[in-house]
Amino acid sequence: xxxxxxxxxxxxxxxxxxxxxxxxxxxxxxxxxxxxxxxxxxxxxxxxxxxxxxxxxxxxxxxxxxxxxxxxxxxxxxxxxxxxxxxxxxxxxxxxxxxxxxxxxxxxxxxxxxxxxxxxxxxxxxxxxxxxxxxxxxxxxxxxxxxxxxxxxxxxxxxxxxxxxxxxxxxxxxxxxxxxxxxxxxxxxxxxxxxxxxxxxxxxxxxxxxxxxxxxxxxxxxxxxxxxxxxxxxxxxxxxxxxxxxxxxxxxxxxxxxxxxxxxxxxxxxxxxxxxxxxxxxxxxxxxxxxxxxxxxxxxx
Length: 301
Description:
By secondary structure, this protein is of the alpha/beta class. The protein has helices spanning 3-16, 19-26, 30-44, 60-87, 100-117, 169-175, 224-232, 242-250, 280-293; strands at 49-51, 56-58, 92-98, 121-127, 141-145, 154-167, 189-192, 200-204, 210-214, 219-221, 237-241, 255-256, 264-272. Strands 3, 4, 5, 6, 7, 10, 11, 12 and 13 form a nine-stranded mixed sheet that branches. Strands 1-2 form a two-stranded antiparallel sheet. A hairpin with a 5-residue loop joins strand 8 and strand 9. Helix 1 packs across helix 3 (30-44), helix 1 (3-16) crosses helix 4 and helix 2 crosses helix 3. The protein starts with a helix and ends in an 8-residue tail after the last helix.
């Protein structure tokens, strides 16, 4: 059997967690995937997968082999894509992951221009509020805000936003304003549940001291727009990026809860899988985003 096909079948089983999903991913039968993996194990003289009725997982040897096999497969894919890109314009399906609120408010309005400029590219934009695994979940790139947690990914900065404490005038009338960071412990706080740090706010005092506010919060939501709406209705104080609340701030529906605190600046990045070669459709889309957002800064959101 073809050695690369055997590698691909094995790596896909590991990525997908089983033979059925791997077969669906590769577009072949489950029995064909099983034959490829069995042939690979026979050729290597080693068991690469632990198989039970409930799950499939790599053995210690299998895990080590997977790392090398995935590199080989990525290099082979890059080689094929390089030849293709030298002969034609950027094309194909571009699958991207974007946080729901940023996607609705700032990505959707500009996609039409990109698709008009590159009619051979089709876009599948998946809106969700979690960090996806780009490679195993089949994404070409993702838009992420704040610190980059996965250092293995490549990233290109698109623009910046700021993050501040906000609440509605109605809330301040009922509960007053916090005068210092410690006062937040006595207020009703609204949290975003998908933060990697959990219900912890990392703030900077006017003196420059780094502080943390830990609280369960009165309300926790996994969607930024819903959290903003709750904040505007007077339910509590939220800690949100300016691209989300800028319009409500201009309209007076929310106000800065502690304007004396220094602004926290956050980068907005396009992240994509590592490799010496970037697919033309990915590179073209990132270049488009850089141009689209180059005039955007924290003061513009």
